[in-house]
Amino acid sequence: MNDDFLHRLRVQPPLEFSVRLAANLQVPPGATRSARRSPIRRAWPALVLLAGAAFAAASPAVRAIVSHAWSTLLTVYSNAVPAVAPEAVLAPRPKSASEGAPAVPAQAPAQSSLSSNLTSPPGGDTALDQPRTLPAASESNGFDTVKITKAPGKGPAGIGIGNNETLSVRNRSLRTIIAFAYDVDRGSVVGGPDWLDKQAYNIVAHARAAVKSGDDMLPLVKTLLADRFGLQVHPDVRQLAVFVLSVGQGGSRLSSSPAFSSELPGEHHPNPGISADDDTLVATHISLKAFSQDLSLNMGGPAVLDQTGLSGTYDFTLRGPRTPEALPAELQEQLGLQLDAVTAPINVIVVDDVHEPTLDVQSASASSAEVPAGAR
Amino acid sequence: MVWNSARDLDWNAIYADQLPRVYNYFRFRLGRHTDIEDLTSRTFEKAWRARAAYSNDLAAFSTWLFKIAQNVGTDYLRSERSYVPLEEVPEIAAVGTPQEVAEHDSDLAKLGRLTAQLAERERELIALRYGGDINNRLIAKLTGLSESNVGVILHRAVQTLKAQW
To answer: Packing angle between helix B147-164 and helix B107-115, nearest 10 degrees?
Structure first.
């Protein structure tokens, strides 16, 4: 079987990543990629002596060339590998760092999925046993302008990202915004004062530069929460009552959203979203993950985990009151989906510290309520 | 390499040996460069977290690690984000960045495009065999298929890819 073309696609992980992950795992430093070249490492002293002897025996012209090349190499290396503090190595790099978004300074590591998965192993004996309190973010220059105002809490609400550069939060509680920033269900954000749920906010923030995807916006949202709300969190695992959304025994009754082709003139991409009143929910081009999050919001907090295994987006209508009591039967009957209440260990985000923000609507400045992100 | 129990695990050796395998498994599985480090990190951190539960009567460590990687990959593919936008939020631009365009030209992206035409099971086997660099016997354990079945499926999948490469 001629499969060389596949073998050739394998690569070594980036050294920086190997070192960073090793630090997170408390793997001995020798386990990084350079250490795997053990024969070379063992031969290193002999190679240095041999090179020194060759250099001494060479003509002055050759020595001058070698010296120049060596100094150039050292310069390039020192520019490419800046000195980092140990805690900088421990800091997980945000996904966006390699994709054009601002890097997060190491002295204030951002919480990420890398650290959110850490829990204390039974009988563990490492630094991982002590959950670290992480600032929500450290990058403070992600947004050009930020406007935060209080919202009534009733009426249309949502969170979205427009043109990969505008964060728009409408009428959402801070707990919901935190859940969005940390990519968890609202019910997975635990702790914090009462107003986290009771007070709703509007936020409009324009990123300094467009990000590559919605995911890349999340580090910036964490920054905003840290800067304006003083948010500090840490990851943990808790036994929580949650709902699990799965496909019912009779199979799903969902129909996929119609295919969209941008090639056809006059065809417009339908705006994906969920609109709902008390008795009717209409979903357009919605994934089951997004639907689960919406259900969680409607039921007042418990996380709804999407375990349907269904990918893609769907158009559907759900009729009836969306309460924890009524939903299971409605979902089963109308959509062929099953909703079960279970208690399970859930990765959560624990709110350690947070304060109410300075509201831009109360700012004495200017007719515009928008203020530079760095000018607080 | 043999590890007897969690207490005996040589994380130095495991890390050096397994990191490239898991890393490449995700590259092959997703057929792109993004999110690979994150998924690899999740896999190793889950293994680390659960190491106390590992005992020598379970499958070899490599099997266990790749089972975690498979689950991490599956969860990821199922939960790729879909935002619910606000009414006011402008439609999200669909134009690719120069980076994306360049990525599409790479061999990895080419593989991603070709494997997208394969069945889910074939994609998984290709990723395990050529990304994870693991043998058919181990793949059989991971997937529940027979070793010979793994070989047949892989052979057909590689021939399909080779014909379009």
So the answer is: 120
CA distance A163 to B91: 7
B-chain residues within 8 Å CB-CB of A119?
A: 49
Among candidates B40, B41, B92 on the partner chain, residue whose Cβ is nearest the Cβ of A162? B92
Please indicate whether, in this complex, the C-beta atoms of A313 and B82 are within 8 angstroms of each other: yes
pTM: 0.39
Report which secondary-structure segment, H or E, holds B121: helix B120-126
Report the pLDDT value the prediction gives residue B35, as an integer from 0 to 100: 83
Neighbours of A253 (CB within 10 A): 15
Q: Tell me the three-class secondary structure of A94-145, residue by residue.
A: CHHHHHCCCCCCCCCCCCCHHHHCCCCCCCCCCHHHCCCCEECCCCCCCEEE
Pairing of strands A255-256, A314-319: antiparallel
pLDDT of res. A364: 35
**Burial label, B4 (beta-carbon count in 10 A; 0-12, 13-18, 19+):** exposed
Compare CB distances from A163 to B24, B90, B108 and report the shortest one's residue: B90
How high is the pLDDT of residue A106? 28
Residues of A in contact with B158 (CB under 8 A): 1-3, 6
Residue B59 tokens, joined = 């499958």
Cβ pair A208, A131 in contact under 8 A: no
Nearest to A240 by CA among A318, A103, A344: A344
Which residue in B67, B40, B42 sits closest to B139, CA to CA?
Answer: B67
B43-64 pLDDT, tens digit each: 988 876 665 555 554 456 778 8
Which residue out of B11, B45, B128, B153 would a mutagenesis test of the A interface target, given it has the greatest number of A Cβ atoms within 10 Å? Answer: B45
Contact A223, A376 (CB under 8 A): no
What are the tens digits of pLDDT across the range A210-250?
777 777 788 889 889 998 899 999 988 877 778 889 998 88
**Helical segments of chain A, H only:** 4-7, 15-25, 38-57, 60-80, 86-90, 113-116, 174-181, 195-198, 214-229, 288-298, 327-330
Overall average pLDDT of the A57-63 stretch? 74
CB contact (8 A) between residue B52 and residue A124 = yes
Contacts of B50 (CB under 8 A, 6+ apart): A121, B68
pLDDT of B120-155, one tens digit each? 889 999 999 999 988 888 898 888 888 888 889 999
Residues 6 or more apart whose CB falls under 8 angstroms from that of A50 comprise none
Instruction: Give the residue from chain A lying closest to B134, CA to CA.
Output: A7
Between chains, do A28 and B50 touch, taking CB under 8 Å as contact?
Answer: no
- Percentage of chain A lying above the pLDDT 70 cut: 61
Q: Would strands A273-276 and A134-135 be described as parallel, antiparallel, or unpaired?
A: unpaired
Helices (H) and strands (E) in chain B, counts: 8, 0
* pLDDT value of residue B94: 30
